Sequence to fold (209 residues):
Amino acid sequence: MVEALVGAANRARERAGFLSVEAVAALADDGVLILDPFSTLVSPDVALAAGVTLWPGTIVQATEGGRVAVGSGTQLFPGTRVVADGGRISIGAATEIGEEGGFTIKTGHSSGVIEIGSHARLLGGGSLALDNSVGDGAQVLGPIRMQNCRLQAGGSHRDPDPDRRGGVLKGSGVARGLTVPTGMVIQAFGLFSEAPLRPQSFFHPKPRG
Fold:
C-alpha cells in the first residue's frame, strides 16, 4: 500500500518536473536537512548548499531555464515557495525565509533577477516578484508584496546598532520601485510609497554606554 502511494506520488512529481520522494530524501547525502521529503518539492537543477534546511511544505522550483541557488545555513520555513520560471534567484547564507506564515519568491520572465543576501530575514507571508535586491542583513517583515525594490545591505537584525543594519520594510501592503538605504526602515499598512523613511533607531533605540 505504501509503495503504491509513493509510486503514484513520484509519477505525479515527474510530470510536474520535480524530484521523486527518494531523490529529495537523498539530498541529505549532500548535507541538506529535509524534515519531510513527502511534503517537500524540489526541481532537479536547483543548487542547495550543505547546511540548508527545508521545512515541510516548501517548494523550490526552476522551470523554463530558470536557476535557483540557496546558500549554506539558510532555512526555508513551511509554506515557502521559491520559483524561477525563467530568470535567476540567488539566496545567500544563513538567511531565514517564511517563518510566521510562509513566503513566495518568484521570477516570471527570462531576464528576471531576485537576489537575497546573507543573514537576511523575509517573514510573515509576503512575496517578491519581478526584480528585487535584498542585501545582506536586510529584512521584509509582514505580508508585503515587493516589486522592483532594493533593500541595501548592512548588519543583521542582531547588530547592536540598528542604524547599521540592512534596510527594512515592515507592515503590510504593496512596495514598488523603492530603495531603502542601510540603517533605514519604511513601515506602512497600504502603499509603502506614501510612508516616510525613518532610521531604524526610531523603532529600536540604540543601546546606551
